[in-house]
Amino acid sequence: MIKNTGIPSLEQIKSKFPDEVPVKPKAIIECYQEIPCNPCATSCPFDAITIGKDINQIPRIDFDKCTGCGSCVYSCPGLAIIIANVKNEEAVFRIPYEQLPLPEVGSIWHGVNRNGEVICKALIKSVLKNKNTDRTCIITVIVPKQFLYEFITIRCPE
Amino acid sequence: MVKRDLIIVGAGPAGLSAAKVALEAGLTVTIIERAAILGGQLTKQTHKFFGSKEEYAKTRGIDIASILIDELKNYEKRLEILKEATVVGMYKDYVLTIYQGNEYFKYQAKAIIIATGASEKVLAFENNDLPGIYGAGAVQTLMNLYGIVPGNEVVMVGSGNIGLIVSYQLIQAGVKVKALLEAASNIGGYLVHAAKLVRLGVPIYTKTSVKKAFGDKQLEKIETVKLDENWQYIEGTEEIINCDALCISVGLTPLHQLLSMAEVDMIYISELGGLIPKKTPDYETSMPRVYACGDVTGIEEASSAMVEGKIAGLMAARDLGHRHKKFNELEKQFKDQLQNLRQGPSGVKIRLGLQKAGEEL
Ligand SMILES: Cc1cc2nc3c(=O)[nH]c(=O)nc-3n(C[C@H](O)[C@H](O)[C@H](O)COP(=O)(O)OP(=O)(O)OC[C@H]3O[C@@H](n4cnc5c(N)ncnc54)[C@H](O)[C@@H]3O)c2cc1C
Ligand code: SF4
Ligand code: SF4
């Protein structure tokens, strides 16, 4: 149970994805608990995320409005948002990353699941860090398609 | 004796916010802070904050401190700041005794805001005084203010937000976090913080505590034990974890000593962390024109500490004859903000505590 492990079930994870496999990049908001927080909603330039007046509500996303721009990814203090889509049999992710060293573009790192286990290879496509991201890096990674609902972060292969 | 209008003790988010509103209203303000830098706990919070825009959500704590300090710059002529100055006494005649640079002196104020924050609770187990055993807040200070890591392999005790966040920051500093132990059956802090740790490979053990520490001159390993429903050790479930540092993060308790010394009415509320001052909806204590705000009135978060500080600053200014131009508007805004922050499930404990203390919500 997520309450004592910190790990969501596959069902919970899937409930945060669009019903159909996303062809265009969409924000996957893994925020499962009512907490007093709303930067995801206030930072979305397309009003795709709603929390409402009660700041404790769980964010809801309108996938039709989400352009996959990524603003919410670095605005979320919980690092709970990733952007995902599937293209040419590959799953493409944009993830927040706050560890050193940073990966080099073109290198292969470990792909890691929500339990912290290495599950696949992850090809680093880009590493973005600027004033807006405020010292959080946004890393674009490609992993095999079957890990769409499993992949969550990368780890340095030592 | 030096005479002042408003003295604010403590320059954390609560004290700095109180100063801003009081200055805005036209008061002359003195801030007394025992540390060398202003910002209180914020000075070591390198992570992005929760909350809403009004409380600088998504900004890192260290940067919130800079924002709060910058906001005071417009009022330099009416603002006095004593740093590395500890208030060691507070008396019924509004006299504060201060210790700074090997000297003691006295200030007398017309009004006082106590914003001293909190200190960390300790945990009782065998050998808990071995070098290598720290409070989590102390570790955060060592790492993020002074660039010193506490060890190479750490175990964290306590899964509240502080335990979770400090664990994450230990990993950022290159330290291995071997495990996080939690006595309760559920994770105490926000699940998003827990998820960040788990994906970095940190196991979280609930219903588990530390029973004993081992080491010759310094911590070498700990013995953990499973707990039953009544938080009693389950014999035979002991396990050894090798580690050279142990961080204890089992809660905070208000730094109430100055208020207690002035014999302000106090009440013990476990949900709020311990002994807190009784206060009116205007954050005034039983001593007229003495206000309290932030963690010293109950352990909460930086966001609520800032709003409470603003209320205290607003009321202190009014009571000294400097009613803020936008008093009515601001009072409503601040009180609504507080209510909004506390209304969700994570505010249950706070609401219960405030109710027990006899406060309106
Ligand atoms: C150890 C610790 C770690 C925390 N970690 C987090 C976190 O990771 N994330 C988060 O959101 N919140 C965290 N918090 C909570 C958040 O930082 C606090 O809720 C918030 O800082 C409270 O603000 P405050 O102004 O009431 O107190 P503080 O920020 O504690 O400020 C109190 C100030 O008063 C000064 N002071 C105290 N006594 C005296 C005296 N006698 N004379 C002069 N000065 C005095 C202190 O030096 C300090 O600067 C933490 C709190 C603590 C105590
Ligand atoms: S990716 Fe962009 S458009 Fe989509 S929810 Fe996030 S901020 Fe809004
Ligand atoms: S910003 Fe992140 S943690 Fe905060 S409500 Fe949105 S998704 Fe949840």
Summarize the structure.
The complex is a heterodimer of chains A (158) and B (361). Chain A is mainly β and 158 residues long.
Overall geometry of chain A? globular
* Class by SSE composition of chain B: alpha/beta
Taking Cα atoms only, what radius of gyration of chain A do you get, to the nearest Å? 15 Å
Low-confidence stretches of chain A: none
Of all chain pairs, the largest interface belongs to: A-B, 44 and 42 residues
**Portion in helices of chain A:** 10-25%
- The domain count of chain A comes to 1
SS field, number of helical segments of chain B: 9
Please tally the β strands of chain A and state the result: 9
Mean pLDDT of chain B: 96
The residue ranges of chain B in which pLDDT falls below 50 over 5 or more consecutive positions are none
Describe this structure in words.
The complex is a heterodimer of chains A (158) and B (361). Chain A is mainly β. Chain A has one domain (2-155). Chain A contains four helices and nine strands. Chain A has helices at 2-5, 10-15, 39-43, 71-75; strands at residues 26-29, 49-50, 60-61, 81-87, 90-97, 108-113, 118-128, 137-144, 151-155. Chain A has a seven-stranded antiparallel β-sheet. A two-stranded antiparallel ribbon of chain A has the order 2-3. In chain A, a hairpin with a 4-residue loop joins strand 6 (108-113) and strand 7 (118-128). The longest helix of chain A has 6 residues, at 10-15. Chain A is globular, with a radius of gyration of 15 Å. With 361 residues, chain B is α/β, with parallel strands linked by helices. Chain B folds into two domains: 2-119 and 252-356, FAD/NAD(P)-binding domain (3-Layer(bba) Sandwich); 124-248, FAD/NAD(P)-binding domain, CATH 3.50.50. In chain B, strands 1, 2, 3, 4, 5, 6 and 19 form a seven-stranded mixed β-sheet that branches. A five-stranded parallel β-sheet of chain B has the order 8-15-9-10-11. Chain B has a three-stranded antiparallel β-sheet with strand order 12-13-14, with no helix packed on it. In chain B, helix 1 runs parallel beside helix 2 (61-70), helix 1 (13-25) runs parallel beside helix 7 and helix 7 (302-319) packs antiparallel against helix 8 (327-342). Chain B is globular, with a radius of gyration of 21 Å. Chain A binds chain B through residues 2-8, 30-39, 42-43, 53-57, 75-80, 98-100, 112-116, 134-136, 152-153, 155, and chain B through 47-53, 57-60, 171-172, 174, 185-187, 190-202, 204, 206, 301, 303, 340-347. One iron/sulfur cluster binds at residues 29, 31, 37-40, 59, 76-78, 80-81 of chain A.
